[in-house]
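User: Good morning. I'm curious how zinc ion would be positioned relative to this chain. Could you predict the structure with it bound?
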Amino acid sequence: MSAPPKEAALKSTLNLPQTAFAMKANLPANEPLRLAAWDSLGLYDRIRAARAGRPRYLLHDGPPYANGAIHLGHALNKCIKDFVVKSKTMAGFDAPYVPGWDCHGLPIEIKVDEHLGRKKLEMDPLAVRRACREYAQKFLDIQRTQFIRLGVFGRWQQPYSTMSHQYEAAILESFYYFYEHGFVYKDLRPVSWCIHDRTALAEAEVEYEQHTSPSVYVRYLLKSSPADLDGALAGRRVATIIWTTTPWTLPASLAVAFHPDLEYVALDHDGTAYIVAEPLAEATRAACNMPAAPIIARFKGTALDRAVFQHPFLDRDILGVLADYVTTDQGTGCVHTAPAHGVDDFRTGRKYGLPVTFYVDNAGRQSNTGGMPYEGLNVFKSNPEIIKLLVEKGALLNSPTDQITHSYPHCWRCHKPVIVRATEQWFIRMETPVGDSTFRQVALDEIKKVKWDPAWGEERISNMIATRPDWCISRQRIWGVPIAVFLCEKCNLPLRNPAVNASVVARFQSEGADAWYAHDTSVLLPDDTECECGHSGFRKEMDILDVWFESGASWHAVLDAEPGLAPPADLYTEGGDQHRGWFHSSLLCSVGMRGVAPYKMVATSGWTLDEQGRAMSKSLGNVVDPVDIANRLGAEIVRLWVASVDFREDVAASENLMQRVSDNYRKLRNTFRFLLGSIGDFSPATNAIPFKQMQPLDQYMLARTAQVAERIRRAYDDFEFHRVYHALNEFCNTELSALYLDVLKDRLYTFAPDSPARRSAQTALWCIAETLVRLVAPILSFTADEVWQLLPAVEGREPSVHIAEFPSADSICPSDSISITAKWGIVIALRSGALSQLEALRAGGKIGKALEAKVRVTGNSKGDQLRDLIAYESALPELYGASQVEIVHDEKADMGTVTFAASLADGAKCERCWRYTTDVASETKYPTVCARCASALVALNFPAYTAPEPK
Ligand SMILES: [Zn+2]
Ligand SMILES: [Zn+2]
Ligand SMILES: [Zn+2]
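Assistant: Good morning! Here's the predicted structure, ligand included:
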């Protein structure tokens, strides 16, 4: 017998946690190492191989634009997609993910323009296209690296890009489908036109911003007989007054429109009778400084049909026309009409057979004016010259300095005001007959078959499709896919020859769209090609396709191209602005070519804003850069932030919020660390305890784990990642850290290593770890894999958690045992009653630790509460952290409640486990410890020792 052991010697016999899982994650340094490990494992391919033959779940990637580093919106988008793909993979689906990029289009061409400067004018289109291609490829590579850094899994080495030969050929093939099936026509049309970017804009590319315009009231003198309007006007000098905020359109003025049903009046002022709409007479008197002008005649708008007026400064007759879009909201009810510069004007001009006279060139300059003073000026700069002219002619009725600030269309790229301008453009006709229906109607019908999340998306896109004009698909630029149509040099008709078209597609397949620029028509066309008119000379159309047509054809270019990806996709998910963008153009391309929507479900996300709800901008200094966060805090923090927000709403981000997410990460990490540390000496194959033989508390925790796992899986199924986040945090913090892991310490540390009660706890902890690691893997992809590598070895398990599947609930807890959570619910709820008594004792200075106390529970054994406590009596000391729990039956007590009391524990303190027991020294070999610790020491072959001398 040796001398009494030092405290440290007894302590060394405790089973303290052991794990290589560090408390400090050091994510910025460790994440890149894990990425390299995944890369050398060929993880994406191994996941694909493991799921081969399973039911497919296809998320089709909407291509980001390759013209800059990624921002937080990109990170949100790609992480959401990654959560979807990974959770579907772990749910057992074969869920491939092929990322893509949108590479053509104006922003890149403009950047390259800026870079090339004047040099561009001398460069041939092929060289410009090469420069654009290099620019796009550079940013594609940068973004790819950044997305990979965020832990997003996908086929990164073989993504899709709209500038690949194969994709360019598929775009052309899609265009030809529309062209050959009668959807496409070329026509003069008023389109929104950016004079800065010198291109037509799609509806989706126009945004409304405030703009200040001149406001002019202009006199148009009547040339035809005044008596035809009203007898009272016979022999008088008569005029009408138009109001416009675009004086620059007056040179193209061809008509004045009146509403047929509106009442018009003639206001007598200074010897002239001015015709205006009656409801606007008062406003016009005020604006034109004729406050007292009396009404001398009244007549319906129909009387003005085909009246003839004199243009205010050109030698031109102006026709009176009728139109029901004339309103009495503002102006005079007499609308100056320039068919070249307005959609309504254009339609009315067609109806009345007016020519489309236009003078404004691509750059927005007034041209061919016949030497007018505004010749060569940009339209906005021509306004003052035209106003001056009106003043000189005595045609301006208000002040030349009057202005109006109003909502005005602007270019979404350069934010400059846009104009409406008639140009020759290519269109897809929305009313093209399709079967018994129309293109537009089939698209509307298909929208109803798609699941929209949030649900308002359905109405939004329906309204857009229902009211949109024909789709203008042409742009007058270089960096894109040409509308590869041959036009007859004699009659200007486009060649319609499917065999020729197919040969051009084949050429694009091998050479890309550059082929259109590289070869003459003599190379591209068979020698004997003839126009319907008999002519055999052709020129190439040099317009390119709208980029929305390109990305809208991705279901064909990407999904049709591989059998494993065949459309329709299960999910498209992008920002909420894509109802007018990619969701829209994809729907139209697919409905036109296949008659069906390309997707089964569409989910949209909100904007990323700062905590005050403001957009992020350099000038506000509130930009949260995902790459910077990844480098400083870890990609895991970006991912966890994405999971923390409901992406359907606008989401807030800031340094502050990222730090808070980082704190939550640390808590989750600590939970895993405790789990791993507690099972450091546990081997599932030899130490696991069957569920039915486990301790009741352990059974309860597994039942709870199964319930939480079910809840989290349902949240994943519904893409409610924020619910996953909250359920995980709550479970880890409230049920594990604050309760289960805390109360287990005694059993884990002080029991003999191989005691069934300790192995029971370890079996539960192992199962919880195996469950949680899978449940967090789609979100905390790096950490989950780190945990996975440190979990106890299991034969035949997957090399990465990302190949594994979610656990089923009954693999965690037999389904017939889930009901124990009901009884335990009462036991857990009553715990606080015991804890508050212990706390009171400690506060009163009677004890230092709860282990120095005994808890007495008094109640009526016929009541549910005491019955449940009796059922789990042996677990109560552990649950309360007290050394002893005594249950007192009081049959007179209220059946609906129990009472707790705490007092000093019986017996003596065990030197090893610090519990108070009445069996300390019952094993003579180890006189300072309790019987339970003595059996642990026996199992550990601890040398016998003598009792210390009494002091
Ligand atoms: Zn622009
Ligand atoms: Zn011809
Ligand atoms: Zn003990």
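The chain has a mean pLDDT of 95. The pocket of zinc ion (ligand 3) is lined by residues 750, 910, 912-913, 915, 929-930, 932-933 (CB under 6 Å).
Let me know if you'd like a different ligand tried.
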